[in-house]
Amino acid sequence: MSAPFYDYVRGRTDQVPPGYSDNGMRAYRHLVYLGASQMVEAHFPELREQLGEDAWRDLMAAFVRDSRWSSPYYGDMKDAFLEFIQRESTRED
After folding, report:
1. Enclosing domain of residue 23
2. CA-to-CA distance for 81 and 64, rounded, in angstroms?
3. What residues does the Putative DNA-binding domain cover (predicted)?
4. pLDDT per position in the chain (93 positions), as tens?
């Protein structure tokens, strides 16, 4: 798979890569977001409740788009999320 494919499904670009359908790519992007959201929530269930739905969606979109998560395994996401939160919190300081 190519960088344009990954950039699209992670929300880094809205340009559908050549050779892929708009509907298929939107579905795949949604599945990646949904998988990330479910895995993070499984480890941090109270976080979603504390943030509220709008802030949760924004956080998950930023995580999928901007994190360094590169493992093909959703199980590795907890560590990537913690690193993302730590990096983002120090960026604001």
Report:
1. 3-92
2. 9
3. 5-85
4. 579 999 999 999 999 999 999 999 999 999 999 999 999 999 999 999 999 999 999 999 999 999 988 888 878 889 999 999 999 988 755
